[in-house]
Amino acid sequence: MVLSSNDREFLIREITKELDAKADGAGKNLIARCPRCGKEGKYGVYVGKETQRKKPFMSHCFSCGCSTYTLEALLDFIGRPDLMVAPTADIDARLDTNLLFPLEEGEEIDDALGVVELPDFYRRCFAHPYLKSRGFTFDDYEYFPVGTTRGLNFRYDDYVVFPIIDEGDVVGYVSRHTWNKDEIDRHNSRVRCKGGYRILRFRNSTENDFVKLLYNYDAVIEGVTDTVIITEGIFDVIALTRKLEIYDNEHVTAVATFGKKISRTQIYKLQCKGVKTVILGYDGDAVEAIKKTAGELNAYFRVFIADIPDAGKDWEDLGIEEIYGIFSYRLRTPAEYRLLKVQELK
To answer: Are 85 and 56 in contact (CB under 8 A)?
Structure first.
C-alpha cells in the first residue's frame, strides 16, 4: 500500500503517542516498551525509507522476539486498528507508458531517433554579428550550441546552424539565414524574374521527423524538472532563458516544438521525464493554435497559458518587466483563456 506523506507523518505521530516512544539517533526507529513482554527499550518500529531488507512500520522486540511485518499487523498488535488508512495512489509514481495514450492494439509511440551529421565544415562559434543583433550574450553561446560553416559550404553560406540534441546525441539541426524575411523575399522576387539561386529562410535537417524532436530537451532533467515552458522556436527558448535567468534552473526550463502545435511523441517525451506542469508560450496571435494545443496537453499535465497581451510581439520582442508581468499576472488555465478570448471578440 502506498501512503501519502501526510498519512505517513500522521501514523508516526500517533504510534509515537500510543507507545510513548522515542526516536533513535538516526530517526529511523521508534524505541518503546514492548506491548507483549513489557520490556523497556527493547521494542522498535522502523519508520525510515524502504530498503531491500526493511519496510516502513515493521516492528520487532529484541526481548521476546515478537515481530510484525505490515502496517495492519502493527496496528492490531498495539491495539490501534482504527489508525489504518485507506489505500491511495502514488501521484508521484511514473506512469506506465502504455497508459499515456489510447493506442490501438499493437500500436506504439515511435520516438526512435537516429544520429544526424551536422553540415560539412560546421564549427561552433561564440560570437556572430547576426546573433549579436538578436541579443545573444556569452551565456547564450555557452548554453545553446550554435555555429557556422565558415564560408566553406556553399549551401550554408550566411546561415547560423543550431544543433538539436537529445540524450547527448545530435538528432537534427535548424539553419537560419542571417537575412530577415523581407530581404529574402525581395531577393527571391528578383531571381524569379531573372533566374538565379533562391534563398531558403530555413535549411533544416531531414533525417528525423521534427514531430519527434524538442529543442533544449536535454535541459529537462528526469524526476527533477517540474515545469516546462513550451514555445514555438529556438530563439523563443533562448530569449526566455536569458530574460528569466533560468540557465541553471533544474526545476523550470523552456523547450520548442518547432511550430504552433505539439505531437503525441513530443507529449510522450515530456511525460517520460516526469514533467507535471506545462506553460504554453506560443505567440500572442496564435489564439486558435493555443486553444487546440492546450486541450491536447490538458489530459496529461497541469496546463497554463502565458497570455501575451500584444499579439504582434513574441518573447524576443518583450522586455524583462513585460515577461515577468505575464508570468505573474497573465497565466491562464485553458478554460480561462477560452473565456477571455470570447469576451475580447465581443
So the answer is: no
Q: How far apart are CA 134 and CA 317, in angstroms?
A: 10
pLDDT per position as a tens digit, 98-114: 555 555 555 577 888 99
With residues binned 3-state (H G I as helix, E B as strand, rest as coil), the percentages for the chain, rounded to 5, are 35, 20, 50
Mutual orientation of helices 234-244 and 320-329 as an angle, nearest 10°?
90
Q: Can you give the pTM of this predicted structure?
A: 0.71
Which residues, at least 6 apart from 156, have a Cβ–Cβ distance to it below 8 Å? 119, 122, 148, 149, 175, 203
279 strand-pairing partners: 229, 304
Question: What residue ranges do the domains of the chain occupy?
Answer: 5-83, 123-207, 211-345
Q: The C-alpha cell of 245 is what?
A: 535567468
The secondary structure element, H or E, covering residue 161 is strand 159-166
pLDDT tens per residue, range 122-170: 999 999 999 999 999 999 999 999 999 999 999 999 999 999 999 999 9
In angstroms, the CA 282 to CA 76 distance is 56
Count CB atoms within 10 A of the CB of residue 298: 15
Per CATH, the number for 211-345 is 3.40.1360.10
Count of all residues that appear for the chain in the document: 346
